[in-house]
Write a structure and sequence with these properties.
fumarase
């Protein structure tokens, strides 16, 4: 396993270097997205108000404090489960050129194939690491679509976000699926040893 340190926006060459299990640290702008703003983009057909070409998108709806017009201070920026936003993966990669999706719990096998097709990766954030993640923020630069608060689009500048684990690489390998398969096999073996099956 190798460690990589990248600055956003990411290129396809950046993500093609990565393999499942590698660790990644990111500097630069990362966009916070979640259900409500992705529904607006894809279901309501409203183009995002920022350029996502080469972007890293973090599944989040942060706890913030308003400190002025359009200005926010991070109180706690955690990560949410990605699977419920799985249906947006193809559009993000194909239509907007996103190179990395960051979240918890992984994405589907179909999304792994899409990562391979479009040259992108899924980076897993350790669950419960919101305090550390928040300390890695330099500034919340902008909040788009504030009417969706807290599920607006967040433009956040990070320094040293990570370490993140490559959960799906640009070759279609899927760490979460591998772990699930291993767990199912171990469960079957244990049930067999106990004489239940």
């Amino acid at each position: 396993m190798a460690h990589f340190h990248f600055k956003t926006p990411l290129t396809e060459a950046d993500v093609q270097q990565l393999a499942v299990g590698d660790s990644v640290t990111l500097d630069g702008i990362i966009y916070g997205v979640r259900d409500a703003n992705l529904i607006r983009v894809f279901d309501q057909k409203v183009a995002p108000p920022c350029d996502w070409k080469g972007a890293a998108l973090l599944h989040t709806a942060p706890n913030v404090k308003k400190i002025g017009p359009g200005k926010y201070e991070a109180i706690c920026v955690g990560t949410t489960t990605s699977m419920r936003m799985d249906r947006f993966t193809e559009g993000l990669l194909r239509d907007y050129g996103v190179r990395a999706i960051l979240g918890k719990g992984g994405l589907s096998k179909q999304s792994a194939e899409l990562m391979k097709q479009y040259g992108a990766v899924y980076l897993s954030v350790t669950g419960g690491a919101a305090a550390l993640e928040t300390l890695q923020i330099e500034e919340i630069e902008k909040a788009y679509w504030e009417d969706l608060m807290p599920e607006c689009i967040w433009q956040i500048r990070f320094k040293g976000l990570g370490p993140l684990t490559v959960g799906i690489d640009a070759h279609g390998e899927n760490l979460q699926a591998d772990v699930q398969t291993q767990a199912q096999q171990k469960t079957a073996d244990l049930l067999k040893q106990m004489g239940i099956v």
